[in-house]
Specification:
Elements lengths: L6 E4 H13 L6 E7 L2 E8 L13 H13 L3 E8 L9 H6 L6 E8 L2 E10 L2 E5 L1 E4 L6
Parallel strand pairs: 1-8, 4-5
Antiparallel strand pairs: 2-3, 2-4, 5-6, 6-7
Amino acid sequence: MGGLEVLYLQMVHYQTMIDQVKKFEREETCGLIAGVDQTSQAVYPVTNILHSPVRYRMDPEQQLRVFNQIDENEWELLAIYHSHLQGPPGPSHMDVAEAAYPGVIHLIWSPSAGGWECNGFLIEKGLVTEVPIQIIDRDSVG
């Protein structure tokens, strides 16, 4: 998919992620976003099996089930998301080192003065490129 210029997130999917981030304030949260044409069709919260405030690792069985659902719906993996409880608002050195899905956006939730903010990045071959996120209403989709 590489070269995304913008990621379109349906408001309901954005809200699902922020609700998860707020619910798990003591550990990094994580999940996957699937869709078509740069537009989210589903968000899949996944359990962080490390239950750590500074690291995440997705439950591999849940992750496999999500990948199967994405395939069944003929969607593509658009983004992987996780939270940084103490910042930074961008990818950490560990995020860059462990990035394993070229062309897939990494959404990082981090605390801000107004609550939580979400920023998007492509991480490929150690290079980080910011990707704009646009929140859309369900009615404006496709």
